[in-house]
Amino acid sequence: xxxxxxxxxxxxxxxxxxxxxxxxxTLEGFDKSTNLLVSEVRDRVSGxxxxxxxxxxxxxxVCCGLLDETDxxxxxxxxxxxxxxxxxxxxxxxxxxxxxxxxxxxxxxASPSLE
Length: 115
Hints:
LSm subunits form a heteromer with a doughnut shape. By secondary structure, the protein is α+β, with helices and mostly antiparallel strands. It has a domain at 1-69: SH3 type barrels (Roll), CATH 2.30.30.100. The protein is 14% helix and 32% strand. The radius of gyration is 21 Å and the shape is elongated.
């Protein structure tokens, strides 16, 4: 994604994080790991000022894109119609049990049949 970010430099962007936070900011810089240096950071939903400048780690970013400023507002989502974003981290309940069954089936397939 990093090479595509050069088109976003010095423009307002929207960033969604793995925690489900959605922020608007001005992209000041980035690196090959998609770490973003942003300024004038505001919460997309509430419009609250978060920071004047901020470094966002690439592994915490789900997606980012240009902010559509046709309405002239960074916080077009203010109001009850903006749903809370769910956590984007993958969680599989009882994952160890699933892997136990997979391992057992592979062991069964690998052992020669005694017929």
